[in-house]
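Fold this sequence, please.
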Amino acid sequence: MKQPRAWQRMLSGRRLDLLDPTPMDIEIEDIAHGLAFVARWNGQTIGDYAYSVAEHSLLVEQIFTTMNPKAPAKWQLAALLHDAPEYVIGDMISPVKAAVGPGYETLDDRLMTAIHIRFGLPTQVPVQIKKQIKKADKISAWLEAVQIAGFTQVEADKLFGKPDSNIAQNAKIYLRPPIDVRHDFTTRHTELMSFL
């Protein structure tokens, strides 16, 4: 029986098999482009541009680095790429991910493994680093919720936890054209790769 097509042609010309991805079919330009056009919060944010996963990823890496100023570049890169699989599988709000079940997580894990191998990162990030990236991710979600997604601080505190006041006061959400975000994402990736 013929297997259904599971690959997607990327703008780089690569054919990425979404069910069995290989590191050689992963290009940062494809990731940056895809993430710059994937809207967080299902696009339900204020402003003239969607708040993209690429912009979120830049903020998470910035927050992670602020909280962990001595973190090696590889962990900063892991923070930048923490949602990278979403360039081909999209972003879903957490309640929907839970409803979809383990299939989504399996797909996400396979893509993340290929992405990490492609950029010289360990396939398994140490638990403590993973926790710090998740903490930065939750702070970013809190900031997004109150600044652009219409949540009250009380709602955001309940869903994401109250963030450190210094980080919350100093971080600002930006809504920019996808091309600008894509450029900044690839630039930051290049900077971090130069330290590996």
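The two ends are 45 Å apart (CA to CA). The longest strand covers residues 7-9.
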